């Protein structure tokens, strides 16, 4: 399965039955509001749980700049999430260095490329914590 629009469409149509489990890891759908366009965009991202919250990595494959979705959630931290059939609003924040240190090994255990991505860039790849809004 492709990791992009097709992935998002199948995930949404099947409540995550197709697309949640992906290449040995798990995926959620993040919907951000464009900081320039004002349009909503949905991105499939590998996640891990962090207590009652979820965490994602803004790796951008090790590119020199942050992914657009990360820039969008920094500008507007209220986001939409879908984890399997559960759709809800969440507040995004960049993990503290201590939180990142605890979370990073959980990410690299199922997606070892994250370590490689970090070596390809001078920027510190952020980990984002997504807290459900009641």
Automatic annotation (TrEMBL):
Pfam families: F420H2_quin_red
Reactions catalysed according to its record: oxidized coenzyme F420-(gamma-L-Glu)(n) + a quinol + H(+) = reduced coenzyme F420-(gamma-L-Glu)(n) + a quinone
Gene3D superfamilies: Electron Transport, Fmn-binding Protein, Chain A
Database matches in SUPFAM superfamilies: FMN-binding split barrel
NCBIfam families per record: hi_GC_TIGR00026
Family that this chain belongs to: Belongs to the F420H(2)-dependent quinone reductase family.
PANTHER family: DEAZAFLAVIN-DEPENDENT NITROREDUCTASE, F420H(2)-DEPENDENT QUINONE REDUCTASE RV1261C
Protein's UniProt name: Nitroreductase family deazaflavin-dependent oxidoreductase
Organism: Nocardiopsis sediminis
Source taxonomy: Bacteria, Bacillati, Actinomycetota, Actinomycetes, Streptosporangiales
């Amino acid at each position: 399965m492709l990791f992009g629009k097709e992935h998002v469409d199948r995930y949404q149509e099947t409540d995550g039955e197709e697309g949640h489990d992906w290449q040995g890891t798990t995926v959620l759908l993040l919907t951000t509001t464009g900081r320039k366009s004002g349009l909503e965009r949905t991105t499939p991202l590998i996640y891990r749980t962090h207590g009652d919250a979820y965490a994602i990595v803004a790796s951008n494959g090790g590119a020199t700049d942050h992914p657009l979705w990360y820039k969008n959630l920094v500008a507007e931290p209220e986001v939409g999430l879908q984890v399997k059939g559960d759709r809800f609003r969440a507040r995004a924040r960049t993990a503290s260095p201590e939180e990142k240190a605890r979370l990073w090994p959980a990410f690299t255990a199922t997606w070892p490329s994250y370590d490689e991505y970090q070596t390809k860039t001078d920027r510190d790849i952020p980990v984002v914590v997504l807290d459900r809004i009641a």
